[in-house]
Each structure stands twice: as C-alpha cells, then as structure tokens.
Automatic annotation (TrEMBL):
It catalyses: L-ornithine + H(+) = putrescine + CO2. Pathway: Amine and polyamine biosynthesis; putrescine biosynthesis via L-ornithine pathway; putrescine from L-ornithine: step 1/1. PROSITE patterns: ODR_DC_2_1, ODR_DC_2_2. It comes from Mesorhizobium ventifaucium. This is ornithine decarboxylase. It comes from the Bacteria. The keyword Disulfide bond does not apply. One of its GO terms (molecular function) is ornithine decarboxylase activity. CDD domains: PLPDE_III_ODC. Residues 26-259 form the Orn/DAP/Arg decarboxylase 2 N-terminal domain. The keyword Lyase applies. Keywords: Lyase, Pyridoxal phosphate. The lineage of its organism: Bacteria, Pseudomonadati, Pseudomonadota, Alphaproteobacteria, Hyphomicrobiales. Belongs to the Orn/Lys/Arg decarboxylase class-II family.
Length: 377
C-alpha cells in the first residue's frame, strides 16, 4: 500500500520519470513484527532485496544482522554500521579470493552446499563457521529457488563432516523454502530434513548448533498473505515437533518480507493501443518494464497491485508491457491485467509492493533508459 508519506512525497516532489519511493517507517514496523513473531531467532536481512544505504543503516541501528551475497554487499552492511560478527556470507557460490577478502574483513560465517566450497573456505578462512544448505522442494512459493542452491540432506552430512575434518566449525544447516512462500507448512518439511542432518552428525560426535531458516516471508500483492505472527507460530511448532526441547540457535533471513510492502513505484502510461480494431484486449505500455525494475514479472510470477486514479470504474483486460525495444519486455499477457477503460496516455499509475527486488534487479541502461531512481523517505 502507498502510505500517506509516500503519497505526500510524490505530490510535493513530483519526480520526473519512473521511480521507487520507500517508506522507512514500514521497514521499521516489519523488523519489529519479525522480532515479535520469532523472538528467539536472529534476523539477518537479505541485503539483495534492497541494498539502499538508508534501509541498511536503519536495520543496523535496530540490531539486525545481514545476509550478504558478495564482498560488495558485505562492505555495504559494514558501511551501514553492522559489525562483522553480524554479517553472514550466505551465497553458496563464491570465488576463493572473495571468501578470503570477506575473512580479512572479519566475516566468520559462510554458507556451503558441497565439499568443493568447503575446501575453498578451509584454505582461506581457517576456523570459520560453515552451515550447509539443503534443498527444498519450493512447493507453495510464487518465486521458487529451484535446485540451484543446496544439496540433499545425506550429502549435507558429508559436507559438514568434511568441514570438521578440515578444521572448520561445522555450525549448522540452512534452507530457503522459496520466495513469496504462502504455505506455512513449508518450514515444517524443511526443518524435518534439517533435523536428520543434526541426528546423523550427532552420532559421530559432531554437534551442530544452528538452523538458518532462510527467507520466503511474503509481501501482500493481490492476494492476502498470512501475517508474520502466523509464520512465527507455525515455525515455532515445527521447531518443537522436530527438535523437542533441544531447539538450536535459529536465524531467519527475510528480504521480500522486510521491504516489499515499504515501496511503491510511480510510473506513467506511455501508450495504449490495439493490434486490430476488433481486439478486446488493449496493450498498455508503461515507462517501466521487465528491464527497468520489474524483473520479477518474469513468467508472470509476481503480479503487482496497480493503482490508478480511475479505480472503481469499469475495467477491461489489458496486456501490460514495458517501454524497451525488446519483445520480451511484456509483464502480463498470458493472464491479462484488468485496468480501467478510462485509463489514458499520460496517466500516472502506482505499482505497489515494489520495495524488494526492483532497483538493483534491473538493466543498467538498456535502450538508454536510466536505472530506476529510488527515494528512501
Ligand atoms: C534471497 C535470499 C533470501 C531472501 O529471500 P526472501 O524470499 O526475499 O525473503 C534469504 N536467504 C538467502 C540465502 C537468499 O538467497
């Protein structure tokens, strides 16, 4: 939802061109809601969701930790005031020299999902803590993370055993249930897998200490989603069920759930046209598209709420497309988007729920369009 602060900002500043406006008050509320929903878990904000320095500074000051994917993100978190012991290098795919650089910066917590990555860490980050990511099925997620990250639980046992043998601290298990996960039971399945790894290694005297339960917490787009409290309860019951009264240290890594609903993109209708006189579907072209910040409309996965000044009047289905000269720059076509018939060229529209995965998840200057501007207020 566009907050009053965002609407006031747009009304007074009248920024030219498409832009994202993020309301820090919403980020603050989200952080507090996660703290309240999962009081025993440490929050590692997934920097990739939106690395705006104002957001990182706010979260660092509130005591958040940070999940980072590169040395650049490690440095952004540190510049925002996070000490190295509140930063995790959570990408399972890292160059050895980047691991080394992060280690020099003081980072001691690294993700792995294979012995090859463990070998790198052992060479350049001696004694570091490592956690092994296990695969999840991604069921129930609107943006599943596929098989790119993680290994099967049986292999996680080998990976962590190897870590211990090489002098690393075999610290725990991680998973990510898939982004925009609306099935509360997803964490239960993944925690069951994590528990298996704990049990097998405990039999060999390797006592894991931590479960990193990843991100996946949703933002409300067109459909209602469960509130943070419901996730907290489901996750706590699953922890009890699988770990009894020996619940390990836990981490969550919200990205979308922390910033998604804090941002709104202002865009302008560039063109409305038809492909034939008798077409009943209009084409609506905005000044932002798949390459300018709406990459998550790929495969029509994320459907953003679009607000116009004509809402409440009669609508008709539209194909929604971006402004670039690439035919892939179409957001919604398989499932057309209903927009008011009175919408006209030059109208402004607000694309809600766009605080996550927009500003940095875009091309640099495709077709000469400048990167999405962002205002954090
Ligand atoms: C992207 C990512 C996250 C954040 O996921 P959301 O679904 O946006 O909450 C958390 N952890 C890791 C390791 C990630 O790659």
């Amino acid at each position: 939802m566009a907050t009053q602060r965002i609407l006031d900002f747009l009304a007074t500043r009248r920024p030219n061109g498409p832009c994202l406006v993020v309301d820090l008050d919403v980020v603050r509320d989200n952080f507090r809601a996660f703290e309240k929903a999962l009081p025993d878990s440490k929050i590692y904000y997934a920097v990739k969701a939106n690395p705006a320095p104002e957001i990182l500074r706010l979260l660092a000051a509130m005591g958040s930790s940070f999940d980072t994917a590169s040395v650049a993100e490690v440095e952004m978190a540190m510049d925002a005031g996070a000490p190295a012991d509140r930063i995790s290098f959570g990408n399972t795919i890292k160059k050895e020299r980047d691991i080394q650089r992060a280690y020099q910066l003081g980072i001691r917590l690294f993700a792995v999902d294979c012995v090859e990555e463990v070998n790198k860490i052992a060479r350049v980050a001696p004694g570091a803590r490592v956690f092994c990511r296990v695969l999840t099925d991604g069921e129930g997620a609107e943006w599943p993370l596929s098989r790119k990250f993680g290994c099967v639980p049986a292999m996680a046992v080998d990976v962590l055993r190897r870590a211990r043998a090489l002098g690393l601290d075999a610290y725990g298990v991680s998973f990510h249930v898939g982004s925009q996960q609306t099935d509360l039971a997803a964490w239960d399945r993944a925690l069951g897998d994590a528990k298996k790894v704990f049990v097998t290694l405990a039999e060999e005297g390797i006592v894991l200490k931590m479960v990193n339960m990843g991100g996946g917490f949703p933002t409300r787009y067109l459909k209602d989603v469960p509130v943070a409290q419901a996730y907290g309860q489901a996750i706590f019951s699953a922890l009890r069920k699988h770990f009894g009264n020996a619940i390990p240290e836990t981490i969550i890594e919200p990205g979308r759930g922390m910033v998604g609903n804090a941002g709104v993109i202002k865009s302008e209708v560039v063109l409305i046209s038809k492909k034939a006189d008798n077409d009943n579907v209009r084409w609506v072209f905005l000044d932002i598209g798949k390459f300018g910040g709406l990459a998550e409309t790929m495969d029509e996965a994320i459907r953003y709420p679009i607000v116009t000044a004509h809402d409440g009047t009669e609508t008709a289905p539209c194909v929604l497309a971006g402004p670039t000269c690439d035919s892939a720059d179409v957001m919604y076509e398989k499932t057309p988007y209903p927009l008011p018939l009175s919408l006209t060229i030059g109208d402004e529209v607000l694309i809600e729920g766009t605080g996550a995965y927009t500003t940095t998840y875009a091309s640099v200057a495709f077709n000469g369009f400048e990167p999405l501007r962002s205002y954090v207020i």
